[in-house]
Design a protein that fits this description.
The complex is a heterotrimer of chains A (264), B (408) and C (272). Chain A has 264 residues and is of the alpha/beta class. Helices cover 41% and strands 22% of the residues of chain A. In chain A, α3 packs across α5 and α3 runs parallel beside α6. Chain C is built from ten helices and two strands, in the order αααααβαααααβ. The chains are: A alpha/beta (264), B mainly alpha (408), C mainly alpha (272). Chains in contact: A-B, B-C. At the B-C interface, α1, α2, β1, α9 and α15 of B face α3, α4, α5 and β1 of C.
Chain lengths: 264, 408, 272
């Protein structure tokens, strides 16, 4: 039987009495592109933070099954270990290392896949030099795939906005993930850039062997991309299903258009 | 703004300062003879001095502002341009090497002695630069590790007769150990909280040394610490100083070499990234705590080695050499020199340690001038004397093609 | 982990508490004397700390020159008191004038220091501002040492022994009483200022903007509140807080600090 690669069971996150997440259960199959949608403040980013270990969920469990490996729990793992287990993420508000070049940003992503320690860094034996070189080439390859190769030596801060978002994806990809969590990847993009992003995400799924869970407000993008959509509102999951199901779901419509429907 | 307004502004400022400094500069009460001395000359001097100082100050402030507006492109300091340019690089380094080799033979012993002190601070500064400049951890208790090194040599020599060369690597390890031990509890804190706690730890070490008489000989300190030997050979006083000088030069070169390599490695990248954005760093799989601890421990390693050299050079140590001001001086070396820049730290150490020595000509005014200079440097060069220019990895597409050919 | 922390905390509190209670039982009168002495000293530090935290709160800078401004307040009070004393003025008038001058001058010095050493560094790395503060601290220390003296100076008490207080004077002197009462009043006033006045609200809003980095340099350029706050900080933290009572009535606390010396004013006075 095929186990889901991400299995979030009854996740609850309590911030001193405020329930940011209430009993959310989500499953993600391998090779799936799933979307997490909901009005602002519904708890979507909190959900990401709980999975990636930035927050420790009050109750509930996050289980992962990396391809070819056994199921394991992410309970109480620090964010860096979650990344090491193969879950990479991007951030809603772009968090690139601004003082570094595009290439170096991706190199940071390679960090947890390199083995050289301090002693090796100081003595620089051939093995360390080769590893460094390999890391640089690998990073460049990733940039080529994402379509940022022409910016390779530019400072990250000087990149156009859309390219910065793509660089975040490139950096996340450099950690060799099996699951990619994208937090509003299309925010602030123009239609052309959004279209390119759409292609990129599909391409990633098909060629890089990653599954994708994304938070997004651009409904057109969500509907065209996602195999499965989860809807949360006030920390509770209110619906899930395919794009067609969600469009027809009265609860979702209410959550999104709540105020307006009352006015009407 | 026309010149007339500048003068008017400076006149107001001068007047403000005359009033401001009045009680302290002008009035002097002699409590014993019950007389009041009004030093009106001071009143005038303050006015004249602040008038011109304010003219100059404002002129440079304005110029700084304008420069910021005109060239947004990062200006690379002269030294870096010299080093990057192949034509100048070799002669420049050669000249520098010649100067430092000739130094102890040309100048009298006193100058060699203070140059050794300055070079010890270069070592300390480069060590602290890892912690503060690269990893962005404000450590105000750096002197603790310096004390550990110095006392390690003094005590191991006193009790077991171990020589300089044996203790040097031992103290490096000891420094690392202390770095880990002290770093472990405090590195969970951030920013200024870290600064205050490290400062507390620095004081703890000093107070322990001061009060644990049986162990460290208390405030009396430890004297007669031997200078390093050369394969068992003891030098006379003058030669010993020159020998010490070259040992320190070698250690500084070693430090530069290793720190440079660390900076351009995986771990160095992680430090810089951690300084920029902790959360993103962790999301990239970098262990925040471990990376910080590495920086902290490595910094401590160099501090301990600096301590050994210090003890061997002065031949006498007591806890008073390791007060909070020592930490602050080292921090000043790093920040005034230019955070994150090795050349800057070297320049900072030379300026900060040699300047007060040469300012002895103006004896009691030296600390006054020194404090004022610190403010002036920071106001006009907030990035330090020599701004850090990080070696950026430039990717070469051709290189990649060659690499692929050789590997297939 | 959490339980270990709580346990440790309780253990430490318990041990300290045990000794405190023991002292109290052995000699209650002596205990209260020490207790009130501690309270007096503590209130002075509390006032200094208030100023510290206000400065820190707004410019996010460990203000190394804080102790120096405090010292200048004390020096001004001392000079004014000595001069007027030699001119034969009434003690009560001297006390009031000394305090007023101390307030005005430490306020002016705080303002000037901010203008010179901190304001130009608002958009610079924070460590640069820290070094600038250290430089300022060194400068002010040496400035007073050179212009006045690096030696200890005696400071005669200006507060008389209140008659009505005589029956209790063996437990707490009138000077100590004055210090504690002043502290409480000043703290309340400061609280009111920060909570309810316009300037207080402006002051509170600034660090928030700083944190969220929504401010632009234009914002700072036209920023009245910051200068205002610094003014208030300087005035309130050191001078208006009347911490120089500490120096005006030195005998009140401990005999060994009845003198003024520059070395007392290193960044954190409590250590020395």
């Amino acid at each position: 039987m095929n186990k889901p690669i991400l299995n979030v069971k009854n996740l609850t996150m309590n911030f001193g009495g405020l329930k940011a997440l209430d009993d959310v259960t989500i499953r993600l199959e391998k090779g799936q592109i799933a979307a997490l949608i909901g009005p602002n403040g519904a708890g979507k980013t909190t959900f990401f933070n709980c999975i990636t270990g930035i927050y420790e969920p009050t109750t509930g469990e996050v289980l992962i099954t990396p391809p070819g490996k056994n199921t394991q729990s992410l309970r109480r793992l620090k964010p860096n270990y979650v990344t090491e287990r193969g879950i990479a993420r991007t951030f809603q508000n772009i968090r690139l290392f601004h003082g570094m070049t595009v290439l170096e940003n991706v190199l940071i992503g390679r960090h947890c896949r390199l083995s050289s320690g301090i002693i090796k860094a100081m003595l620089q034996p051939p093995s360390q030099k080769n590893e460094e070189k390999q890391a640089v080439f690998d990073s460049y390859e990733i940039l080529e795939k994402i379509g940022l190769a022409k910016y390779v030596n530019d400072m990250a801060v000087n990149l156009p906005y859309g390219a910065q978002r793509r660089l975040e994806i490139a950096r996340a990809l450099a950690t060799d993930p099996f699951l990619l969590l994208l937090d509003e990847p299309a925010a602030g993009m123009n239609p052309q850039e959004t279209k390119e992003l759409d292609d990129l995400i599909l391409w990633l799924r098909d060629n890089e062997d990653v599954s994708i869970l994304l938070i997004e407000h651009d409904m057109k993008l969500v509907m065209s991309l996602s195999d499965w959509i989860h809807v949360v509102d006030y920390g509770k999951k209110i619906a899930e299903g395919t794009a067609a199901d969600i469009k027809a779901n009265p609860e979702v419509i209410k959550a999104y258009l709540g105020e307006e429907s009352e006015d009407a | 703004m026309p010149i007339k307004n500048h003068i008017k502004q400076s006149l107001i400022i001068a007047f403000w300062f005359m009033i401001l400094t009045f009680p302290i500069m002008v009035i002097k009460v002699n409590a014993i003879q019950q007389t009041i001395d009004f030093r009106w000359a001071n009143f005038l001097w303050v006015g004249i001095f602040t008038f011109f100082a304010s003219m100059i100050w404002n002129y440079f402030l304005r110029r700084n502002e304008e420069q910021k507006k005109t060239d947004i492109a990062d200006d690379i300091p002269l030294v870096h341009r010299l080093l990057q340019n192949d034509r100048f690089r070799r002669p420049f380094l050669g000249l520098l090497a010649a100067f430092f080799i000739a130094y102890p033979f040309v100048f009298p012993m006193y100058h060699t002695s203070i140059m050794i002190s300055a070079l010890v601070y270069v070592m300390l500064g480069l060590g602290l630069n890892i912690v503060v400049g690269l990893a962005g951890l404000l450590d105000l208790g750096y002197v603790a590790f310096y004390a550990v090194g110095a006392y390690a040599y003094a005590l191991l020599n006193l009790h077991f007769g171990l020589s300089f060369w044996v203790v040097l690597p031992m103290s490096a390890l000891l420094g690392t150990l202390f770095g880990v031990l002290l770093g472990y509890p405090v590195l969970r804190l951030r920013g200024d909280y870290l600064a205050i706690v490290t400062l507390g730890f620095g004081e703890i070490i000093r107070i322990v040394l001061e009060n644990w008489d049986d162990f460290s000989n208390g405030p009396r300190g430890i004297s007669d610490i031997p200078a390093p030997t050369f394969f068992g050979h003891h030098f006379g006083q003058h030669d010993a100083m020159i020998y010490m000088y070259f040992i320190v030069i070698a250690l500084v070169l070693m430090t530069i070499f290793f720190v440079n390599r660390l900076e351009n490695s995986k771990i160095g990248r992680a430090w810089i990234a951690l300084r920029d954005d902790e959360i993103a760093c962790q999301a990239m799989g970098i262990d925040k705590f471990k990376t910080k601890l590495t920086a902290f421990a490595l910094g401590a390693t160099w501090a301990a080695m600096g301590g050994v050299v210090f003890a061997a050079k002065t031949s006498f140590i007591n806890p008073m050499s390791f007060t909070i001001w020592e930490s602050i001086t080292i921090l000043c070396v790093v920040v005034i020199g230019g955070m994150g820049s090795a050349i800057g730290v070297i320049a900072g150490a030379l300026v900060l340690i040699l300047l007060p020595e040469y300012l002895r000509a103006v004896a009691e005014y030296r600390m006054l001038v020194f404090g004022a200079l610190q403010v002036i440097v920071m106001v006009f060069k907030p990035d330090g004397l020599i701004k850090s220019v990080r070696k950026v990895y430039t990717f070469n597409v051709q290189e990649k093609a060659i690499h692929e050919q050789t590997h297939t | 982990m959490r339980w270990i922390n709580i346990g440790l905390g309780l253990a430490v509190t318990g041990i300290i508490g045990f000794f405190v209670v023991r002292e109290l039982l052995i000699d209650p009168l002596y205990f209260f004397e020490l207790f009130l002495g501690g309270l007096t000293r503590g209130s002075i530090y509390a006032l200094i700390a208030l100023g510290y935290t206000m400065v820190y709160g707004i410019i996010q800078l460990i203000n190394f020159a804080h102790g120096e401004i405090y010292m200048i307040g004390a020096m001004t009070a001392l000079i004014v008191a000595s001069v007027l004393g030699l001119w034969g003025w009434n003690t009560a008038v001297i006390a009031i004038l000394a305090v007023v001058f101390a307030i005005v001058y430490s306020c002016a010095y705080g303002f000037t220091v901010e203008k010179i050493a901190y304001k130009p560094l608002r958009n610079s790395p924070r460590l640069s501002a820290l070094i600038s503060a250290i430089g300022m601290s060194l400068f002010l220390q040496n400035y007073v040492m050179l212009a006045q003296t690096p030696d200890y100076l005696p400071f005669k008490s200006l507060i008389p022994d209140f008659h009505f207080w005589e029956p209790y004077a063996h437990i707490i002197t009138s000077v100590e009483l004055t210090i504690i009462i002043t502290t409480v009043i000043v703290m309340i006033l400061l609280g009111i200022l920060i909570k309810f006045t316009r300037i207080g609200k402006a002051m509170r809003s600034l660090p928030v903007m700083w944190d969220r980095s929504t401010f632009s340099s234009d914002f700072w350029q036209g920023s009245k509140p910051l200068s205002q706050r610094f003014w208030v900080v300087s005035a309130l933290s050191r001078a208006q807080c009347w911490d120089r009572w500490y120096w005006v009535f030195p005998k009140a606390i401990l005999p060994d600090i009845s003198t003024v010396n520059m070395k007392m004013y290193l960044p954190f006075p409590s250590w020395y």
